[in-house]
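Lecture 7 notes. Example A: sequence first, then its structure tokens.
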Amino acid sequence: MKKLWTLLAASVLAAVLLLTATGCGSGLAIECEGEYSYELTTLTALPEKVTFGGTDDSGLVVVMEEKKNGTQYSLYDMAANAFVADAKLDKASEDVNQSGMIYLAHGVFYSTKTNSDDETEVTIYTRNGKREVGVATVTDGMVVDKDGTRIYVDLKGELQTETDEFKKIAVYGTNRVGDYYINGADVFNKDGKYLYTITESILNLPSGAVNLESWSVGNFLFGQGSIRVPDDSEEYDYYDSKGKHDLLTYRLDLSCGKATRVDMDYVVGKVLTAINDDCVALQVSAIENNRIMENDVAQIFGTDGKVAVDLQSMVPGAEQVTVQGKYLIIDDGQNSFLYEGKKRLYASESSCTDYNYDLVVKSSDTSVYVYDLKENLIKKLPVKDIVDRGSLYNGDLWYATETEVLVLHRDTKKAVTVLTPEQNAKLIESSPYYLETGIGGPDGFKCTVHFFDEANTKVEMTGEPIMVAVSKGVGVDYRILRLLKPMENSTAVPVYYLIKTTYPTQK
């Protein structure tokens, strides 16, 4: 049987992944920072004939250019729209001992070369150029040289060198819980300083505890389990076909490493979503008269393990909760309700309704209706005409028919046609970035790339547009789009565009 300390030290991290991008505040307050923005830039620094390799989440991409005797690898910074100085690698065609540039971690790539002693030598590449490490191995997102020195990216995204091979470290991407980071059972502060390791002795748990569920709120880890007690015991929390059980719910305060037991009148089924740093939505079953109720409901719990916001008083029978921007969507299995804080903004049947920030989409067998939050009808479209639809980063909606594509702008509540009916529309990527239209002719395939912005920006080219590199970070994405530009001699040369999109994230 799993012990509860294992749950807290390891299994909880699965739930933590749902809880790392939460906002600040209390109750149902959801705060976001950042703005939506869109920027299209022509990349003049890129040579015409290149291919693209790996990317990271900071805007770096490997660019490969064929030379006379092999391939030149370079590191290109999409955020700066320039090549990184001294971050180049020349690999001869016949050199089987030399690798290309390979992604290692945030902001870091590496290459390997086998020397005459059959040892692996490593070189790393960052925005600061290249660094010869020497004989080393690459493992767990870090480079370890033959003396045990570790080169890694820390929590702040900076490259670090650690000579003490026994020192516990937290690398970039380590799971965050409140103001702390957890790697396995090791706890670190926000600066990456090791504090302690979660152990059985810290939690002081009874042996034989069976794992039920785990979650986190703020700077606290919660774990819940149960343990059998004698059948003649007068003190127990619930009984079932297996006998009597004591429900164990523990709260570990990460600030001091102290665990305490808390009383809960619910058996936690699963984590639904984080609301903010103070609250988390859980699917639970109430315990009444020492029996676990069969119906699962959604409730919002705080840092003390108690119900912080009674969802059942807001929506009786609520079983699902999701967060969308500053809004909360509560579903009872039949109807879904849109809330801002505790204020109900909209209610509709779950089976036919999608909430898209400030827009509400309702679908029937024959039509799709788009409303604002005041229930004003914005647009009606026949279902048979819609071949594809989706939403943009900024909450706008787009719809594609056999002949046209339109965008419903979230702010203006106006529908704008981005492709005209006389054009043949082809959706080349089910994303918010571009569409193509094209008609074959003597000069080859003509296309127009439409960017979904307020100005309805259009770029007319010859050839098929291809997205050749994508870098997805927190609050910003970088994408390189390649198009073919027609020349007077009927040839075409590639032109590269950088599409930078920023969007709000929860604090």
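Example B, a different protein, same format:
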Amino acid sequence: MKKTIRLGSFLLAFLLLVCTLPVTACAASTSYDLSRALFRSAETQKRVVSYAKGEKATLTFTPQYTAEYTLSFFVHNPKGESGRNAHASLTFPGGKVQEGEYPYRPNAKDYSRPYITATLEKGKTYTYHVWGWLPTSEASDVDITFISGASGALTEELGLRAYLQGKTVFNGYNPQAVLNELKLLVGFKNATQPLEWCYKNAGGVLSINGADVIVDMSGCGAEGMNTMAVYYQGYRAEAKFEIRSHEHNYEAGDSVLPTCTTAGYTPYFCTICADEVHRDIVPALGHNYKEKSRALTKATTSKDGKRTATYACTHTGCKAKYTKTLQTYYKASNIKLNKTAYTYNGKVQKPSVTVKNSKGKALKNGTDYTVSYPKGMKNVGKYTVKVTLKGNYSGSKSMTFNINPKGTSVSKVTAAKKGFKVTWKKQTTQTTGYEVQYSTSSNFKKGNKTVTVSKNKTTSKSVSKLSAKKKYYVRVRTYKTVKIGGKSVKLYSGWSVAKSVTTKK
């Protein structure tokens, strides 16, 4: 098996593909992108560009790690024609330019020299220009080469290490299967936690300080000694391991008891390689639930309630449990009085109460709620009834009803000059006074005027300054002033039957 694994493989594959595409003749200041990383020490990457007389070839690139690079170009002159000097320059981020010239070499079919050597920083974009009079009248090819600086020996500062979880010998029937489970740890000096890499998950990205790491396993997987190499920013570390085939020799270990959710088994371990298999399987026990507690969330006038039970598994060490709703108590959202207004009759008057849940089911008085009535409920006034929920319900609701004064009736209405006089029956019991209302509308829906008579013994009222020869409708009602919440409030009887009158001229 021969295979090289590189982390960040998708990006590298794409960039490598780009590097292999043919380059055609280009106009002045044509730009090329060169973003592929040079991971290994002294690694070389080449670009071929073409340009004609009077033009510039421009090549941009972004190093993937900080290192020293050497840039050179190679001029093709197959006919040995004469020409002028060729030039090149390197522009740094910020505008700094490093440049020079390649001297003219007459009759040389090809010539090449290292031209610029500089330390370039990771992630920054640089621009390399090539221009000058080339030997031919047509566009010529120029090879531009990038060479990463050699790292030499590992430094104490970097301290790159690669190791195989402390194991050097791996045993198994299938070397490839062993390789799939191989785990590599990569670390640096003073690192708190090494990075783990596995052959089986080679597509994952492994990086140190934001820079990609390459793991090279070329030639690994066969029986015998294998060498794994790690590259990082031009530095190299390696680890060796041995793959050796054998037949397993299993011995039984301590049995594992089944739980509610997992099967029991007896583990068998290979005495040569520590491979583990499970035999003598015992099915999982399954849960044995019993009720442990109950809880009640009472319903209110706005929220449903429920009674729940909690069940727990009785098997030793199992903490599984669940909660079940036994019954739902729907909110008591419909609480009403059967009547909210009465007329004074000298007797106690009290409304009945109905209480229903949100599903329309009537609740039981004494079981689900109680009703509290105020004292009195005989004289004219406003009275409060309170419903208090109980049992599986919680909360309360207060409602009011009125006992209004007894009404009166119009005896007669006599026409007067631009007015009238109305007479009614006296009503002094539980009455403070009267209101007289008149209108040109028989249904009293517009143009109404109301006159208050503050003495309950007064039984007539004259109204003047009306329109002459105009028909008016007149009605009367009683009122009583009572104290509600510390304020004086008028409670009214119903209106009497209206009588009509036409004013005189």
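Note on Example B: The chain has a mean pLDDT of 79. The two ends are 127 Å apart (CA to CA).
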